[in-house]
Amino acid sequence: MLKNGISNEIKITRFLLILLILLGLGAAAFWIFVLNNLKNLKLEGLNAARELEKTENKIKNFKALETTFAELKEKKEKIEKSVIGNEKGLVKFIENLEFLASKSGGTLNLQSIQTPKETETSYPSLNIELKGDFEEIYYFIEMLESLSYFISFEQLSIQKNPPQTIAQFEQKGEKGYKWTSKINLRLLSYKISQI
Question: Which residues pair with 114 in a beta bridge?
């Protein structure tokens, strides 16, 4: 019996030992599972924090863009008022051209004006013809360049009139213009510059 009793105790001990090992392995597997999930949750939390930070940065950038856009819109309106939408400025500029022509001694003929439509961002273009002596034309161009307007000369030509043309003017009782200048200019700003 003693042998039987020891053998039962060994069996029970083995069973308990195997049970303890299995419970230990189960607990270890459970902790590994829990720790793995915690690690995944931590990674998800970090990713969510990064996404939140990105979204906050986008919101800050958007607000900065809104502010910049409002400032640019205000500047655009000021520019349009001073450059594009100011017809009085164009009239004043033409009056200045006429004054310069009379001051130089030449005769000014405004041949055409091309103004942009409201939807366009281009600038008005003027085609003028000036008749007179070479010195008068040169003086007019020199004064035109010194005006405080933003002007782009698109085309400028000066040519001597043939003797027949001069004679035709004189037959009509007009001054015999020796030279003719054709100028195509673009008015970039009606506003007098402060340069």
Answer: 125
- Written as one letter, the residue type at 174 is E
Identify the H or E element spanning 112. Answer: strand 107-114
Cut 0.70: pTM above it: no
pLDDT digits (tens, 9 = 90+) for 59-85: 888 888 888 888 888 776 665 555 444
Residue 122, SS3 per DSSP: coil
* Residue 151 structural domain: 87-189
Same domain, 125 and 164: yes
Regarding whether 100 and 57 lie in a shared domain, the answer is no
Would you say 186 and 84 are in contact if contact means Cβ atoms under 8 Å apart? no
* Residues 183 and 147 sit within 8 Å (Cβ to Cβ): no
Check whether residue 12 and residue 102 sit in a common domain. no
